[in-house]
Specification:
CATH superfamily of the largest domain: GntR ligand-binding domain-like
Number of domains: 2
CATH topology of the largest domain: Four Helix Bundle (Hemerythrin (Met), subunit A)
Radius of gyration: 18 Å
Largest sheet: 2 strands, antiparallel
Number of strands: 2
Number of helices: 10
CATH architecture of the largest domain: Up-down Bundle
Shape: globular
Strand order of the largest sheet: 1-2
CATH class of the largest domain: Mainly Alpha
Structural class: mainly alpha
């Protein structure tokens, strides 16, 4: 697990939001846990004002819920929520992939390929934090290459609430390796400008993610070492 980045005094609440996202996605603030302002101000070494602004930002993204009389709580999805969210995401990612294969520029393809090789290096080192950061950036880049802003906004809104679940699926070595192989297929399909292949691999990728998430939920898996319980 990488250390949390230093906070710049420029756009302080944005910098705090970056670190809060890391804590939430990596499960260091557990799903369903209340965000304790006193503990977080000490951990992040900031005052409550930028912290509260940061919490508003990530609440708007869907990573936390703002509940009456409880404050900010890390999002915790039910089995039905997970099934429904991944079902929709599979369709959105399939559309993104198919459109991206048709519309991607050489520069965009080169950037995705470069991130893919960086992600492979992170996988080889078993550096899950950087692997997931690059993984999410690749999916966002594919979505961006589809060049449909309505699709992008819809994808971002739903994907934000399942990021920590997507992160956790890679805690299983076999599933992590298989996800890496699926990403290799995505890059190959983009290079071939094969929209049908992109649609197929992305649907299967999201179905596999959903299955892994539901398996973990039903098994009651504990967070990985170093993560909050």
């Amino acid at each position: 697990m990488t250390d949390l980045p230093e906070i710049s005094r420029l756009s302080l609440h944005d910098q705090v939001a970056v670190r809060l996202r890391t804590l939430l996605i990596e499960g260091r603030i557990a799903p369903g846990a209340k965000l304790n302002e006193r503990e977080l101000t000490a951990l992040l070494q900031v005052s409550r004002t930028p912290l509260r602004e940061a919490i508003k930002l990530i609440a708007a993204e869907g990573l936390v819920d703002l509940l009456p009389n409880r404050g900010a709580v890390a999002v915790k999805l039910t089995e039905a929520d997970i099934h429904n969210s991944f079902e929709v995401l599979a369709g959105l990612e399939a559309m993104s992939g198919e459109l991206a294969a048709q519309r991607i520029t050489e520069a965009e393809l080169a950037e995705i390929s470069a991130m893919h090789f960086e992600m492979l290096a992170a996988f080889t080192r078993r550096d899950l934090s950087n692997y997931y950061r690059l993984n999410a950036a690749i999916h966002a880049a594919i979505n961006h290459s589809a060049k449909n802003p309505v699709l992008t906004r819809t994808f971002n809104a739903i994907n934000a609430r399942v990021q920590s679940l997507r992160f956790r699926t890679n805690l299983n070595e076999a599933k992590w390796k298989h996800a890496m192989q699926e990403h290799e297929q995505m890059v190959q399909a983009l290079r071939a400008r094969d929209g049908a292949a992109m649609r197929q691999v992305l649907v299967q990728h999201l179905v596999n993610k959903r299955t892994a998430v539901l398996d973990q939920l039903r098994a009651g898996d504990a967070p990985a070492p170093g993560m909050a319980a």
